[in-house]
Amino acid sequence: MNRLLTLVLSVAVLFGTFSAQLPRTQHHEVRLADFAVNRVAVIGDSYTTGSDQGGNGTNGWTSQVWQALTQHGIAVTPTVAAEGGAGYCTRGSRGSVFEDLTVRAVKPTDVLVVFFGSRNDMNVDPTRLSIAMYGTLKLARQIARSAKFLVVGPPWPTADPPQEIRRIRDVLGYQSELAGATFVDPIAARWFVGKPELIGVDGVHPTDAGHTYMADKLAPLIGAQLNPY
Fold first, then answer.
1. Residues belonging to the active site
2. CA–CA separation, 129 vs 142, rounded Å?
3. Cys-Cys crosslink for 211: which of 46, 61, 105, 223, Cβ 3.0 to 4.6 Å?
């Protein structure tokens, strides 16, 4: 946990320092043609798609991250494949698991692949879950051989996530290490703990404010994977 906190703090400082170096005038505009475009694939669940509690369209964390990165001179060409209810083993509202979404989103020219979630695998046998995670990450590597991987574990809105959620986190952390991915643990980092305004009335999905909060957390982490500094 200390290593994770150190990584997050270091990246935040790096991103803030990088931001402070950018020109900030009323007439300054970032032109995409001025920068190399980074292809990024994102695979996720309803925390990425948004829900009736918030995070739809430009209010979603992905849209806010791309905007923030572009403003800091990091142009991105994103492909987002996310489905409510989906997980590594659990089929979502349209019948997909993360492996299906990986096929849909990941391209050979991607420089970064981001996986986010999923709490939807709560009822899956740990061995089956581990095999599915391994297979999905391996598939992504076979498609995007030179890409970096950023794997975000399942968040939880309180300080006492159930054992099943901690198990998903632990198995995913292990498989991320095997895949050479950077693993982010929202549970250990207490992303939503003590911040009830960030979660909707259903007690599960982030509000618009919650998506802005996630964007603030993820933009420097994604930026660090794309920026050579």
1. 46, 202, 205
2. 20
3. 61
Question: Which pTM value belongs to this model?
Answer: 0.84
Q: Where do we find the tokens 């200390």?
A: 2
Cα 83 to the center of its chain, rounded Å = 14
Using alpha carbons only, give the angle 131, 188, 198 rounded to the nearest 5 degrees: 105
Chain center to CA of 169: 14
Chain position carrying tokens 């909060």: 213
Closest CA to 40 of 103, 141, 116, 110: 110
What is the count of structural domains for the chain?
A: 1
CA separation (Å) from 20 to 13, 14, 64?
A: 10, 10, 19
Q: CATH number of the domain that 123 lies in?
A: 3.40.50.1110
Instruction: Look up the domain containing 211 and give its range.
Output: 31-226
Tokens of 45: 């669940």
**Quick check: is 123 in a domain?**
yes
Amino acid at 77: T
184-221 pLDDT, tens digit per residue, is 999 999 999 999 999 999 999 999 999 999 999 999 99
Q: Are 84 and 46 in contact (CB under 8 A)?
A: yes
* Count of C-beta atoms within a 10 Å radius of residue 160: 8
Written as one string, the DSSP assignment of 92-116 is: -TTS--HHHHHHHH--TT-SEEEEE
- 54 part of a folded domain: yes
